[in-house]
Amino acid sequence: MREKYEQVDIVYAESLNRLITQGYFSNLEDFSSVLFVSSQPFYEYYYDKFSKLFSSSLEFQWYICPNNIKARGIDTFQSILEYMEEMTTPENTLIIGAGGAELFHLCGALKKSSPYLSAFYYLPSTLSGFIDSLFGEVWLNNSKAIPSMKQKLLPDRVVYDTMLMELETREVWRESFFKLIHLAVTQNAELLKKIYQVSLSENYENFSPFIASIIQVIKKENQFSSSFGKSFTKAFYRLEEAHYLNISQKEYIGFLLHLLWTLERSEVQFDYNKFYFWFESIVGIELKLPEQMLITDLTESLLIELTRYQKILCLKEIGQVDMVNIPDQEELFKVIEMYRRIK
């Protein structure tokens, strides 16, 4: 299937192997060189297939990096810039990123920053990578794995073969599911209903039924709501007791706290408890706040983080966001207390 979103050529529900053999990538010869940045599993499966596309006159390099949170860190970003200098990467180089969402953010930041890169193709192996690539935002993390550098960028091509998900772990599937939920809650209530209905079937782990809907939602509704929950998540990193939570738990609980606050602020009718337990059962990890984490400490940390902004995202209703004034200390304390009482 083929779609166009702004300047992005999107291909999905087609085999990457077939696209390679049928000449979809025949335009690689239009570039001075090609720089692949991929995960190890992608390299092992596709190096031989892609290397056959290159003539003897076309330079290409292949950089393998971890397909995890470290890939979108400043250190990895700088390492690849140094690698490009060592390899004397020429102008008019195409960068192809292949792997999870981290690879999209890393390669997007490289394309945005390097004068030698003229185009960016992205081959997501995860749904989270596919969604992120259409949002037009690239984030790099600082040394504490906190998103700290944001740039605007859309890739030139996105080729999503859902079979690549077989290269990924259960943890990566969970992150893709969260990204899908995040998109539905903030941008399209009908999509959320569809996800819930599909989750009741045995085939709920297959994301293919959602791809066309995702593209249409982003085309029609894109409200740049990817930051929903981020500030609440970042507040955990200020607390010593946060070490009781892994990175995913911080992200999911941050989103759930932001959602609970926004439902209270806007008085939106939504069965939050049912949603909470359903989401927790699907992702398969506990989403309670650690007993050692005091409500007063978390409230203070949230207030410190949120006062960096004049306004933050808030749901007008499920699927629609607006910007509103930040919550005060009393609001935050009440919301955390409510979250703690969920049993």
UniProtKB/TrEMBL annotation:
This is 3-dehydroquinate synthase domain-containing protein. It comes from Vagococcus hydrophili. The lineage of its organism: Bacteria, Bacillati, Bacillota, Bacilli, Lactobacillales.
